[in-house]
Amino acid sequence: MAMAVHICTNFLHSTHTVPSSLRPYPANPSSTTVVRTRISCLSSSSSSPRMDPQTKFMEFPHVSAPIRDLMLGLVSSVETHLGSSLLPCSLPPDVQYYQNPNGNAEGTVFVRSAIPSSPVDFILGSWINCKLPSGGALNIASLSTYLKPSTNAPNFLIEVIQSTPTSLVLILDMPPRKDLVLYPEYLKTFYEDTELDRHRQLLEKLPEVTPYSSPSLYIRALISPTAILVRIEAEAGEITRIDEIIRDNLSPIANEMIEVWLSLCASVDKEVGEAEMAYLEKRDLITKTKTIEIDLGTNIPRLFGQEIADRVLGVLRGVFNV
After folding, report:
1. Is 318 exposed, middle or buried (0-12, 13-18, 19+ CB in 10 A)?
2. Sequence-distant (≥ 6) Cβ neighbours of residue 88 within 8 angstroms
């Protein structure tokens, strides 16, 4: 979510123009009905049907059907694999779904924490829709997973940032939680033996795909050497080509990576010693604190106003335990 909001703000404050004819994708709930039934974030019974936070998150209402299917499929895989070890989402309804006073930006937050015996800390999903000053809209969908210091395994992250129907940025990674230079066996176990880099290499062979470099040095310092950071851009009017790439190329890669994370990282405690656990606790705390302070704390107020930002960030600080 932090990377997504950072990039969203860059678009809002850049000189990049988007044709006024471009609008968010229409919702197509029927394409994901089966998947949605498996997602169990609970919302308050007091929420009105029109503003139901659970429905808002599960529908990803402003993105194309292939992106919606991709994101809901990943959430479903995580929830199905982790099963009863995940607790229901208990965020306040006005944090699960929020909107700025002008009505030109809205977002959702979806969090499920895990039971104490699980190596998983929590999973965090979100989407953000921002109307651009030049017309059109920026749509962002993200899913992150966080592990406890009882294991040293990497986390998982995917963000799809789309500014026009024919252009998007993809960030897909298992961010490391140890220094890969100091711990070469960690590099071998999670990145070399799993052959994660082949996904990036295959994707970058497509003519529509070019490498993307985040403007944030902090974000670039967090990712792994096998991270997929790419811009995918088709010719004007070729919306179906973008949909084909998402369906035929991105989805298989993301699904394979989440399965690697679920089997290798989320299901096995690494039995770390006390010294390493203390290191992981310190590193995780710094990472989460910097995410709140440097990125979210700066950008959410710009998009949603200070009152909404204080409410959302206050809850996220509790989730991040910072």
Report:
1. exposed
2. 40, 41, 42, 112
- DSSP character at residue 26: P
Going by C-alpha positions, the residue among 72, 14, 33, 100 that lies closest to residue 258 is: 72
- Contact at 8 Å (CB) between 142 and 125? yes
Beta strands at 120-131 and 156-164: parallel, antiparallel or unpaired = unpaired
Measured distance CA(21)–CA(231) in Å, rounded: 22
DSSP 8-state assignment for residue 51: G
For residue 131, give the H/E element and its range.
Answer: strand 120-131
Q: Could you tell me which residues come within 8 angstroms of residue 68 by beta carbon, excluding any fewer than 6 positions away?
A: 28, 31, 32, 59, 60, 141
**What are the DSSP calls for 208-225, one per residue?**
TEEE---S-HHHHHHS-T
Distances from the Cα of 216 to the Cαs of 209, 231, 296, in angstroms? Answer: 21, 16, 13
Determine the average pLDDT of the residues in 103-127.
93
- Condensed to tens digits (0 to 9), the pLDDT of residues 283-322 reads 999 999 888 887 677 778 888 889 999 999 999 999 999 8
Please say whether the beta carbons of 209 and 267 come within 8 A: no
* Contact criterion met (CB below 8 Å) for 317 and 289: no
